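Predict structure. Chain length: 101.
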Amino acid sequence: MHLPAALVLLPLDINISPNSHGLPGIRQLKGIVGASMTVGLILAVLALIVAAIVWALGANSSNPHLAGRGKLGVLVALGAAIICGASVTLVNFFWNVGQQV
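Prediction complete.
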């Protein structure tokens, strides 16, 4: 049986890992991503404060629609903070899961 040439040339064991020295500007890119995470967390805190105020105003004025929007805003702000804070851990977790496939 004759194998096609493409199968014969493929290596049997491919091992590629991230290279943090391969491209110029990696250090600056890490700084930009870290600054973006900081801005995201600050905006999540601001959104939490605004949503809590909206919730309080809605509850005190007997406006269930406004109170519901405030509650939803609080949940969204907390979710954004969780995602911003855990983004590096989540990416590392799924990277490790992908390496085991």
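Summary: The chain is about 75% helix and 0% strand.
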